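Table S7 (text form). Paired inputs.
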Amino acid sequence: MTDLSLSVASRTWSLAEVEALFDLPFNDLLFRAQTVHRGHFDANAVQLSTLLSIKTGGCSEDCGYCSQSARHDTGLEREKLMEVSAVVEAARAARDAGATRFCMGAAWRGPKDKDLDTVSEMVREVKALGLETCVTLGMLKPGQAEQLKDAGLDYYNHNLDTASEYYGEVITTHSHGDRLDTLAQVRDAGIHVCCGGIIGMGETRRVRAGLIRELANLNPQPESVPINMLVKVPGTPMAATEDLDPFEFVRTIAVARITMPASHVRLSAGRQELGEGVQALCFLAGANSVFHGDQLLTTGNPEIEADRVLFAKLGLHGEPVRGRRCAS
């Protein structure tokens, strides 16, 4: 019989073990996930991150889900890199609205050195506000992760997106191995890893289990694990993909919590479409982080006031940033 013990630290997960978790009765799965969650976190605390697109559109990659690819006709206008002052203003507003981490995303295959100099300045200025900092800039070249670390970067986001065997169905302009290479550079530079994926892209449950297995077997495991529901953007190759059953999304959250007990599991893209009831189940399943604010990179997100109402209904509260400093 497959070992489904609650003891999950310092182990390697097999695909069969992760699939067995997915196959548990729904109530048993959520009970197991909530038990693991309570062993590592305040059960009613949620970490709040805000995401800002600092450079929108015109990306050369062909990610099948992405509105920002230059290869897809989504009507999105290409924009240049934002001014540092505008980013700092947005970060200050996010902090004042309750966010403890500010995430900056740029639509690049990877940053040019001159652009990385500007992003490094953004990181320093946002960090000075007392916020944790995160960037997602695509694939990194040698030395770039160290530059970001020197600027004070806390987290680098680089999602696996999907399991390795399904990767070619989603992206062809770079490989799964390219993703792992950037993650290795981030780790070697001493930056925390934010790494998750997208579900609902036409994959099978076995592929979803494979994604969670690959994330859980990263050594060390990612500190943050964003789980995205596909947002079907008109003009992208995945715009007509069949909707994923919301209970399957909740199952994925629960399996991520069980296999990555000390990671923050974040409800990310697609949360607006889930509704209050499914979000509540996700929190019960061990999700303890959200993107906070009515806009993600280019897609919608629940408004801040809507989150306040939902959190009040559920008795949830924001998680404070460790060592937060007072700042102007």
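Next pair, protein 2 of 2.
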Amino acid sequence: MQKKIEIIAKSQEEALAEAVKRLHISSDKIFINVLGELPEGLNCEALVDVNLTLEGKKYLENILKALNIGYQIEARSVGDSQIYFNIDSNENPLLIGIKGKTLDAFQILVRTLISSYTKEKIISTLDIGAYKSNRAHQLEILATKTAKEVAKTKISVKLKPMNSYERRVIHEKLSEWRDVYTESEGEGENRAIVIKAKNA
């Protein structure tokens, strides 16, 4: 559900101005619905009226245009709770950054934008030049190989620190294994997964 608030105002224009102030969203993305009249003024409902997928795509396009980078963006939604963005550009390494840190920053920006429009938990995922899908494949191979060693030796293995996306890939890959389980340890950038044997 996209954000909405109730406002009592003397006119629709006044209600719109108040909604912009309270929602921190531009007026062209707000719809004012008059619910009725009260002695103190109009009882209005201010609704955020945007297509989240298109808004995210436009936002990314504006960033890339400002950077003067040629690009193609694919944007698609899956149901009401997931949005996927994929960028392919002539500067993919620059946009991905070292260890994907620039890509992570772009994703935070997009998530912040989308959360400003809705109260629902929307999972928005950004990939650039298939970096994340390739990385996920590498992590799944690492997870499987390490899990086999742990199951055989019964000795826990701590992997290198990873970001939340990478840790989730490992957790999901090993979630149904009968012989091992995973835990995250550490804080911030030092947070890492430990693969442990069951019944060790």
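Strands lie at 4-9, 30-38, 41-48, 71-78, 82-89, 123-128, 157-158, 180-185, 192-197.
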